[in-house]
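Posting this for the archive.
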Amino acid sequence: GEERTGRLVRWCANRQAQGSGFMGRPNKPEDTCYSFWVGATLSLLDKLDLCDKEASRMFVLSTQDPVTGGLAKWTDTQTDPLHTYLGLSGLGLQGESGVMDVDPALNLSKRTKRWLDELQKSW
């Protein structure tokens, strides 16, 4: 019910380190992928406004490798496809300029979701 939803929202909102990104569990370091996992949960609950989007954005962008591209789990570590994808998805949830809006339930662009919905009508 509402009480459980409220506890979930509180737990998710508390996963953001002050002035930084999101962590998966209490007392763990921030991790790029949780900008999507926690962000999508808050978005589905219509509570994304509770997070500091700019702080999350700055953390995610701080993990970018300026030479090879991509995003890493943490700042100053090796980039990888998983964290790049989830980091971009997290930015898309937050309305980052130049990044497509993301459907939080499916983790794909809203444009792709519309296309799939149209395709499904022909079945």
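Residues 99 and 117 are 21 Å apart (CA to CA). The first strand starts at residue 102 and ends at 103.
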